[in-house]
């Protein structure tokens, strides 16, 4: 599979504001709200480096259960690929179970079961436009910068 690079890394946290302040101070960056994604049970924000912070949206949802069982830490490692169909075929041919596949705007992605990928949810994404949508979101201030 042709991997173009790391797209983003998501870290599951208990306190979004506390985590945001820490990473903004350490990396001299600014986070932007991506908002709530009920289908994934997350509220998230991202910075221009591709660091995404996520918290559970629902107290008894799947993200809450993972946070309770495994604690805070890296939850998603997302790779940008040249051809998602080929990448998915290669992963599944190696016995890695796909857990989800779908579209979000110009982004097409697939996720793979963490039990098959050493405890990390691997995501493969293919963008169907040149500009990275998360960076576009930040440039256009669709996600708003957060203030203390």
UniProtKB/TrEMBL annotation:
EC number per UniProt: 4.4.1.5
Listed SUPFAM superfamilies: Glyoxalase/Bleomycin resistance protein/Dihydroxybiphenyl dioxygenase
Gene Ontology terms describing biological process: L-methylmalonyl-CoA metabolic process
InterPro entries assigned to the protein according to its UniProt record, in alphabetical order: Glyas_Bleomycin-R_OHBP_Dase, Glyas_Fos-R_dOase_dom, MMCE/EMCE_epimerase, VOC_core
Pfam families: Glyoxalase
Keyword Iron: no
Annotated GO MF terms: dioxygenase activity; lactoylglutathione lyase activity; metal ion binding; methylmalonyl-CoA epimerase activity
Domain spans labelled VOC: 5-127
Key words of the record: Dioxygenase, Lyase, Metal-binding, Oxidoreductase
Annotated protein name in UniProt: Protein containing Glyoxalase/bleomycin resistance protein/dioxygenase domain
Species the sequence originates in: sediment metagenome
Lineage: unclassified sequences, metagenomes, ecological metagenomes
